[in-house]
Amino acid sequence: MAKIINGKEIAQKVRADVTKKVEKMIAQGITPGLAVIIVGEDPASQIYVRNKERAAAKAGINGQTIQFPTDVSEVVVFNKIQELNQDDSIDAILLQSPVPSQIDEEKMQSAIDPNKDVDGFNPLNIGKLFANRAGYYPVANTPKGIMTLLAETQVELQGKFVVILGRSILVGRPLFALLEAENATVALLHRYTSDELRHRLLQQADVVIAATGVPGLVRGIDLKAGSVVIDVGITRLPDGHLTGDVDFLAAQDTVAAITPVPGGVGPMTIATLLQTTVELAAKHHQMELQEL
Ligand SMILES: Nc1nc(=O)c2c([nH]1)NC[C@@H]1CN(c3ccc(C(=O)N[C@@H](CCC(=O)O)C(=O)O)cc3)C=[N+]21
Protein backbone atom coordinates (compact mmCIF):
# COMPACT_ATOMS: atom_id res chain seq x y z
CA MET A 1 0.00 0.00 0.00
CA ALA A 2 1.14 3.49 -0.87
CA LYS A 3 2.19 6.11 1.64
CA ILE A 4 -0.39 8.90 1.72
CA ILE A 5 1.45 12.22 1.55
CA ASN A 6 -0.17 14.41 4.19
CA GLY A 7 -0.33 17.88 2.61
CA LYS A 8 -2.24 19.29 5.53
CA GLU A 9 0.49 18.30 7.97
CA ILE A 10 3.35 19.60 5.82
CA ALA A 11 1.37 22.82 5.20
CA GLN A 12 1.00 23.17 8.97
CA LYS A 13 4.77 22.96 9.32
CA VAL A 14 5.27 25.67 6.68
CA ARG A 15 2.67 27.86 8.37
CA ALA A 16 4.29 27.46 11.78
CA ASP A 17 7.60 28.59 10.29
CA VAL A 18 5.89 31.55 8.58
CA THR A 19 4.17 32.55 11.84
CA LYS A 20 7.51 32.50 13.67
CA LYS A 21 9.11 34.71 11.01
CA VAL A 22 6.18 37.14 11.07
CA GLU A 23 6.50 37.47 14.86
CA LYS A 24 10.17 38.41 14.46
CA MET A 25 9.33 40.93 11.74
CA ILE A 26 6.58 42.51 13.82
CA ALA A 27 9.07 42.82 16.70
CA GLN A 28 11.14 44.95 14.31
CA GLY A 29 8.14 47.10 13.43
CA ILE A 30 7.26 45.43 10.13
CA THR A 31 3.95 43.65 9.45
CA PRO A 32 3.89 41.81 6.11
CA GLY A 33 0.94 42.93 3.97
CA LEU A 34 -0.94 40.82 1.40
CA ALA A 35 -3.61 42.26 -0.90
CA VAL A 36 -5.93 39.88 -2.76
CA ILE A 37 -8.01 41.29 -5.62
CA ILE A 38 -11.08 39.33 -6.60
CA VAL A 39 -13.48 40.21 -9.41
CA GLY A 40 -16.99 38.75 -9.46
CA GLU A 41 -18.79 36.19 -7.36
CA ASP A 42 -17.48 32.78 -8.58
CA PRO A 43 -18.26 30.59 -5.54
CA ALA A 44 -15.04 28.52 -5.69
CA SER A 45 -12.94 31.70 -5.91
CA GLN A 46 -14.85 33.20 -2.99
CA ILE A 47 -14.01 30.15 -0.86
CA TYR A 48 -10.30 30.21 -1.79
CA VAL A 49 -10.04 33.92 -1.11
CA ARG A 50 -11.76 33.56 2.26
CA ASN A 51 -9.38 30.70 3.16
CA LYS A 52 -6.38 32.81 2.15
CA GLU A 53 -7.61 35.71 4.25
CA ARG A 54 -8.16 33.50 7.31
CA ALA A 55 -4.76 31.81 6.93
CA ALA A 56 -3.01 35.19 6.55
CA ALA A 57 -4.66 36.54 9.71
CA LYS A 58 -3.70 33.42 11.69
CA ALA A 59 -0.06 33.88 10.66
CA GLY A 60 -0.09 37.54 11.73
CA ILE A 61 0.02 38.84 8.16
CA ASN A 62 -1.99 41.96 7.36
CA GLY A 63 -4.35 40.53 4.75
CA GLN A 64 -6.64 42.75 2.74
CA THR A 65 -9.25 41.59 0.21
CA ILE A 66 -10.44 43.93 -2.53
CA GLN A 67 -13.71 42.74 -4.02
CA PHE A 68 -14.90 44.18 -7.34
CA PRO A 69 -18.26 43.51 -9.02
CA THR A 70 -18.33 41.24 -12.12
CA ASP A 71 -18.86 44.23 -14.45
CA VAL A 72 -15.97 46.38 -13.12
CA SER A 73 -13.97 48.08 -15.87
CA GLU A 74 -10.36 47.17 -16.58
CA VAL A 75 -9.08 50.66 -15.78
CA VAL A 76 -10.52 50.50 -12.26
CA VAL A 77 -8.67 47.24 -11.58
CA PHE A 78 -5.52 48.63 -13.22
CA ASN A 79 -5.66 51.78 -11.06
CA LYS A 80 -6.12 49.66 -7.94
CA ILE A 81 -3.01 47.65 -8.83
CA GLN A 82 -1.05 50.90 -9.32
CA GLU A 83 -2.26 52.13 -5.93
CA LEU A 84 -1.19 48.88 -4.23
CA ASN A 85 2.18 49.03 -6.04
CA GLN A 86 2.74 52.44 -4.40
CA ASP A 87 1.42 51.38 -0.98
CA ASP A 88 4.36 50.77 1.35
CA SER A 89 2.26 48.64 3.74
CA ILE A 90 1.61 46.10 0.95
CA ASP A 91 4.37 43.58 0.16
CA ALA A 92 2.39 41.08 -1.93
CA ILE A 93 -0.42 41.44 -4.50
CA LEU A 94 -2.52 38.59 -5.86
CA LEU A 95 -5.17 38.87 -8.58
CA GLN A 96 -7.45 35.86 -8.16
CA SER A 97 -7.92 33.94 -11.38
CA PRO A 98 -10.17 33.74 -13.41
CA VAL A 99 -11.33 37.29 -14.16
CA PRO A 100 -14.29 38.32 -16.40
CA SER A 101 -13.62 38.75 -20.12
CA GLN A 102 -13.57 42.58 -20.17
CA ILE A 103 -10.37 42.39 -18.11
CA ASP A 104 -7.11 41.36 -19.77
CA GLU A 105 -5.60 39.11 -17.12
CA GLU A 106 -2.12 39.12 -18.68
CA LYS A 107 -2.09 42.91 -18.81
CA MET A 108 -3.05 43.02 -15.13
CA GLN A 109 -0.38 40.46 -14.18
CA SER A 110 2.21 42.56 -16.00
CA ALA A 111 1.04 45.66 -14.12
CA ILE A 112 1.80 44.12 -10.72
CA ASP A 113 5.20 45.30 -9.42
CA PRO A 114 7.57 42.30 -9.97
CA ASN A 115 8.73 42.76 -6.36
CA LYS A 116 5.14 42.35 -5.09
CA ASP A 117 4.16 39.61 -7.54
CA VAL A 118 3.26 36.90 -5.02
CA ASP A 119 1.90 34.57 -7.75
CA GLY A 120 5.07 34.85 -9.85
CA PHE A 121 2.99 35.62 -12.95
CA ASN A 122 4.73 38.83 -13.97
CA PRO A 123 6.65 38.09 -17.22
CA LEU A 124 9.90 39.26 -15.61
CA ASN A 125 9.60 36.62 -12.87
CA ILE A 126 8.46 33.93 -15.33
CA GLY A 127 11.49 34.77 -17.48
CA LYS A 128 13.87 34.44 -14.53
CA LEU A 129 12.33 31.09 -13.59
CA PHE A 130 12.70 29.71 -17.13
CA ALA A 131 16.24 31.01 -17.37
CA ASN A 132 16.96 29.34 -13.99
CA ARG A 133 18.41 32.61 -12.72
CA ALA A 134 20.15 32.79 -9.37
CA GLY A 135 18.84 35.02 -6.59
CA TYR A 136 15.41 35.42 -5.11
CA TYR A 137 12.27 35.99 -7.18
CA PRO A 138 8.69 34.87 -6.56
CA VAL A 139 7.50 31.59 -8.09
CA ALA A 140 3.87 30.41 -8.44
CA ASN A 141 2.74 28.98 -5.11
CA THR A 142 1.12 25.71 -6.19
CA PRO A 143 4.30 24.51 -8.00
CA LYS A 144 6.53 25.88 -5.23
CA GLY A 145 4.36 24.07 -2.65
CA ILE A 146 4.64 20.84 -4.65
CA MET A 147 8.45 21.15 -4.58
CA THR A 148 8.22 21.50 -0.78
CA LEU A 149 5.98 18.41 -0.61
CA LEU A 150 8.49 16.41 -2.66
CA ALA A 151 11.43 17.61 -0.56
CA GLU A 152 9.64 16.89 2.74
CA THR A 153 8.76 13.41 1.43
CA GLN A 154 12.42 12.91 0.47
CA VAL A 155 11.64 12.21 -3.17
CA GLU A 156 14.86 12.16 -5.18
CA LEU A 157 14.57 14.17 -8.43
CA GLN A 158 18.04 14.25 -9.95
CA GLY A 159 18.20 11.87 -12.91
CA LYS A 160 14.57 10.82 -12.46
CA PHE A 161 11.84 10.93 -15.11
CA VAL A 162 8.90 13.18 -14.27
CA VAL A 163 5.67 13.36 -16.26
CA ILE A 164 3.52 16.49 -15.84
CA LEU A 165 -0.04 16.41 -17.17
CA GLY A 166 -1.35 19.89 -17.99
CA ARG A 167 0.56 22.97 -19.17
CA SER A 168 -1.15 25.87 -17.38
CA ILE A 169 0.81 28.94 -16.32
CA LEU A 170 -0.53 28.33 -12.78
CA VAL A 171 0.92 24.82 -12.44
CA GLY A 172 2.36 22.77 -15.32
CA ARG A 173 4.70 25.29 -16.94
CA PRO A 174 6.41 26.59 -13.77
CA LEU A 175 6.72 23.01 -12.49
CA PHE A 176 8.51 22.05 -15.66
CA ALA A 177 11.15 24.72 -14.96
CA LEU A 178 11.45 23.92 -11.24
CA LEU A 179 11.87 20.17 -11.80
CA GLU A 180 14.32 20.66 -14.64
CA ALA A 181 16.36 22.90 -12.34
CA GLU A 182 16.56 19.93 -9.93
CA ASN A 183 18.08 17.88 -12.77
CA ALA A 184 15.03 15.73 -13.48
CA THR A 185 14.11 14.79 -17.06
CA VAL A 186 10.67 16.28 -17.55
CA ALA A 187 7.87 15.61 -20.04
CA LEU A 188 5.06 18.17 -20.23
CA LEU A 189 1.93 16.51 -21.61
CA HIS A 190 -1.27 18.27 -22.71
CA ARG A 191 -4.62 17.74 -24.41
CA TYR A 192 -3.03 16.99 -27.79
CA THR A 193 -0.82 14.24 -26.38
CA SER A 194 -2.30 10.97 -27.65
CA ASP A 195 -3.80 8.51 -25.15
CA GLU A 196 -1.29 5.94 -26.28
CA LEU A 197 1.78 8.14 -25.78
CA ARG A 198 0.45 9.32 -22.40
CA HIS A 199 0.09 5.72 -21.26
CA ARG A 200 3.60 4.80 -22.45
CA LEU A 201 5.24 7.80 -20.79
CA LEU A 202 3.29 7.38 -17.54
CA GLN A 203 4.40 3.76 -17.32
CA GLN A 204 8.00 4.94 -17.28
CA ALA A 205 7.54 7.88 -14.92
CA ASP A 206 9.23 7.92 -11.51
CA VAL A 207 7.11 10.91 -10.53
CA VAL A 208 3.70 11.85 -11.96
CA ILE A 209 2.15 15.28 -11.46
CA ALA A 210 -1.45 15.50 -12.68
CA ALA A 211 -2.89 19.01 -13.10
CA THR A 212 -5.66 18.80 -15.68
CA GLY A 213 -8.99 18.86 -13.84
CA VAL A 214 -10.05 15.68 -15.66
CA PRO A 215 -11.19 13.14 -13.04
CA GLY A 216 -9.94 9.61 -13.67
CA LEU A 217 -7.47 10.65 -16.38
CA VAL A 218 -4.69 8.69 -14.66
CA ARG A 219 -5.66 5.05 -14.12
CA GLY A 220 -3.99 2.42 -11.97
CA ILE A 221 -2.68 0.58 -15.03
CA ASP A 222 -0.91 3.73 -16.26
CA LEU A 223 1.39 3.88 -13.24
CA LYS A 224 4.75 2.26 -12.57
CA ALA A 225 5.24 0.29 -9.37
CA GLY A 226 7.06 2.39 -6.77
CA SER A 227 6.36 5.76 -8.43
CA VAL A 228 5.28 8.94 -6.62
CA VAL A 229 2.01 10.62 -7.62
CA ILE A 230 1.07 14.26 -6.96
CA ASP A 231 -2.57 15.01 -7.76
CA VAL A 232 -3.23 18.72 -8.32
CA GLY A 233 -6.70 18.28 -9.85
CA ILE A 234 -9.72 19.50 -7.87
CA THR A 235 -13.12 18.79 -9.39
CA ARG A 236 -16.33 19.08 -7.42
CA LEU A 237 -18.58 16.10 -8.17
CA PRO A 238 -22.38 16.44 -8.35
CA ASP A 239 -22.58 14.90 -4.85
CA GLY A 240 -20.40 17.73 -3.52
CA HIS A 241 -17.26 15.67 -2.97
CA LEU A 242 -13.89 16.78 -4.34
CA THR A 243 -11.89 14.51 -6.62
CA GLY A 244 -8.50 14.70 -8.29
CA ASP A 245 -7.24 13.56 -11.72
CA VAL A 246 -5.99 10.19 -10.47
CA ASP A 247 -7.96 7.01 -9.71
CA PHE A 248 -6.77 7.12 -6.11
CA LEU A 249 -7.92 3.66 -4.99
CA ALA A 250 -6.35 1.89 -7.98
CA ALA A 251 -3.14 3.93 -7.74
CA GLN A 252 -2.73 3.13 -4.06
CA ASP A 253 -2.05 -0.53 -4.85
CA THR A 254 0.80 0.28 -7.22
CA VAL A 255 2.63 3.44 -6.25
CA ALA A 256 5.02 4.21 -3.39
CA ALA A 257 3.38 7.48 -2.37
CA ILE A 258 0.41 9.62 -3.41
CA THR A 259 -1.27 12.89 -2.37
CA PRO A 260 -4.97 12.81 -1.48
CA VAL A 261 -7.63 15.26 -2.71
CA PRO A 262 -8.57 17.14 -0.62
CA GLY A 263 -5.75 17.43 1.91
CA GLY A 264 -2.81 17.21 -0.49
CA VAL A 265 -1.68 20.04 -2.76
CA GLY A 266 -4.52 22.49 -1.87
CA PRO A 267 -3.40 23.26 1.70
CA MET A 268 0.22 23.61 0.44
CA THR A 269 -0.83 26.33 -2.02
CA ILE A 270 -2.19 28.50 0.78
CA ALA A 271 0.76 27.85 3.13
CA THR A 272 3.21 28.67 0.33
CA LEU A 273 1.36 31.88 -0.50
CA LEU A 274 1.98 33.02 3.09
CA GLN A 275 5.62 31.91 2.83
CA THR A 276 6.13 33.91 -0.38
CA THR A 277 4.43 36.95 1.19
CA VAL A 278 6.94 36.87 4.06
CA GLU A 279 9.85 36.41 1.65
CA LEU A 280 8.72 39.45 -0.37
CA ALA A 281 8.26 41.50 2.81
CA ALA A 282 11.75 40.57 4.00
CA LYS A 283 13.22 41.54 0.63
CA HIS A 284 11.23 44.77 0.56
CA HIS A 285 12.64 45.76 3.97
CA GLN A 286 16.14 44.44 3.25
CA MET A 287 15.95 41.84 6.00
CA GLU A 288 17.84 38.58 5.78
CA LEU A 289 15.36 35.69 5.77
CA GLN A 290 17.88 33.30 7.32
CA GLU A 291 18.04 35.52 10.39
CA LEU A 292 14.27 35.42 10.85
N1 LIG B 1 -4.06 34.16 -8.82
C1 LIG B 1 -4.42 32.97 -8.37
N2 LIG B 1 -3.57 32.28 -7.59
C2 LIG B 1 -3.91 31.05 -7.09
O1 LIG B 1 -3.13 30.40 -6.36
C3 LIG B 1 -5.20 30.52 -7.44
C4 LIG B 1 -6.03 31.29 -8.26
N3 LIG B 1 -5.61 32.50 -8.72
N4 LIG B 1 -7.24 30.84 -8.64
C5 LIG B 1 -7.76 29.57 -8.18
C6 LIG B 1 -6.65 28.60 -7.84
C7 LIG B 1 -7.12 27.46 -6.95
N5 LIG B 1 -6.38 27.61 -5.69
C8 LIG B 1 -6.57 26.79 -4.59
C9 LIG B 1 -6.08 27.10 -3.32
C10 LIG B 1 -6.35 26.29 -2.23
C11 LIG B 1 -7.10 25.14 -2.34
C12 LIG B 1 -7.39 24.31 -1.14
O2 LIG B 1 -7.10 24.67 -0.02
N6 LIG B 1 -8.01 23.13 -1.32
C13 LIG B 1 -8.43 22.23 -0.23
C14 LIG B 1 -9.91 21.99 -0.27
C15 LIG B 1 -10.74 23.26 -0.33
C16 LIG B 1 -12.21 22.98 -0.64
O3 LIG B 1 -12.85 22.26 0.17
O4 LIG B 1 -12.72 23.48 -1.68
C17 LIG B 1 -7.73 20.88 -0.36
O5 LIG B 1 -7.34 20.52 -1.49
O6 LIG B 1 -7.62 20.19 0.65
C18 LIG B 1 -7.58 24.82 -3.58
C19 LIG B 1 -7.30 25.61 -4.69
C20 LIG B 1 -5.56 28.68 -5.81
N7 LIG B 1 -5.66 29.28 -7.00
TrEMBL record:
Stretches assigned to coiled coil: none
Molecular-function GO terms, alphabetical: methenyltetrahydrofolate cyclohydrolase activity; methylenetetrahydrofolate dehydrogenase (NADP+) activity
Pfam (any one): THF_DHG_CYH_C
Keyword annotations: Amino-acid biosynthesis, Histidine biosynthesis, Hydrolase, Methionine biosynthesis, Multifunctional enzyme, NADP, One-carbon metabolism, Oxidoreductase, Purine biosynthesis
Top-level taxon: Bacteria
GO CC, alphabetical: cytosol
Reaction catalysis annotation: (6R)-5,10-methenyltetrahydrofolate + H2O = (6R)-10-formyltetrahydrofolate + H(+); (6R)-5,10-methylene-5,6,7,8-tetrahydrofolate + NADP(+) = (6R)-5,10-methenyltetrahydrofolate + NADPH
EC number, as in UniProt: 1.5.1.5, 3.5.4.9
Signal peptide stretch: none
Positions of the Tetrahydrofolate dehydrogenase/cyclohydrolase NAD(P)-binding domain: 141-284
Function text: Catalyzes the oxidation of 5,10-methylenetetrahydrofolate to 5,10-methenyltetrahydrofolate and then the hydrolysis of 5,10-methenyltetrahydrofolate to 10-formyltetrahydrofolate.
Record family assignment: Belongs to the tetrahydrofolate dehydrogenase/cyclohydrolase family.
Protein known as: Bifunctional protein FolD
Organism: Weissella coleopterorum
